[in-house]
């Protein structure tokens, strides 16, 4: 998606060690118009998968997932990183490594909002190693749901996440696919 790529080139910052800082339009401050356009694009790309629910991870996945849900008229569930007292005692829980924090993070979903028979579309901000998305897949499977597609705003193809998800045999769409990043710039491959 050209608008997202241009915004990454304009405002994204390569911090080394494979980390792309996009805090001023995706991760800390959110550009609602850009996220709305991304949601519309995901809705177009996943129009035929028959999704009944969208699943994402707290917190950076919420904006693109919410806008996708708006365009697809689907509820959005996000896996929380901590269990509030309002959540039932029995929950779906898994752990996944956080690339930017360098620690293992819990992903928790209430069975009230993810149940057997759902057709789940996973939307997240990044696809790097695939570990967070595989965590979301585990949550969906624990609920008896079927993952029917995976969409990410940005994919760092050099980290192998797409290959790690290939066994799921579902469509995977990333709106901006980065081939490599270094001190000289950010380089994209064609859309996948």
UniProtKB/TrEMBL annotation:
Record: residues binding xanthine: 20, 27, 156
Record domain Phosphoribosyltransferase: where: 73-156
GO cellular component, one term: cytoplasm
GO BP, one annotated term: XMP salvage
Subcellular locations according to the entry: Cytoplasm
Keyword flag Transferase: yes
Catalytic reaction(s) noted: XMP + diphosphate = xanthine + 5-phospho-alpha-D-ribose 1-diphosphate
Primary residence: cytoplasm
Assembly with partners or alone: Homodimer.
Record's protein name: Xanthine phosphoribosyltransferase
């Amino acid at each position: 998606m050209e608008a997202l790529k241009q915004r990454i080139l304009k405002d994204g910052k390569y911090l080394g060690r494979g980390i792309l800082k996009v805090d001023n339009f995706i991760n800390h401050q959110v550009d609602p118009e850009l996220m709305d356009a991304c949601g519309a694009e995901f809705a177009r790309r996943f129009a035929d998968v028959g999704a009944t629910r969208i699943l994402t991870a707290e917190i950076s996945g919420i904006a693109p997932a919410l806008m996708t849900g708006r365009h697809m008229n689907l509820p959005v569930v996000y896996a929380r990183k901590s269990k509030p007292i309002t959540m039932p005692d029995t929950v779906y829980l898994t752990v996944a490594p956080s690339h930017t924090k360098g620690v293992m993070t819990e992903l928790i979903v209430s069975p009230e909002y993810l149940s057997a028979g759902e057709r789940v579309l996973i939307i997240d901000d990044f696809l790097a190693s695939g570990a967070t998305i595989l965590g979301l897949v585990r949550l969906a499977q624990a609920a008896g749901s079927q993952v029917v597609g995976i969409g990410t705003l940005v994919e760092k193809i050099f980290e192998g996440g797409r290959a790690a998800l290939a066994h799921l045999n579902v469509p995977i769409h990333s709106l901006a696919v980065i081939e490599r990043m270094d001190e000289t710039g950010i380089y994209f491959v064609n859309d996948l």
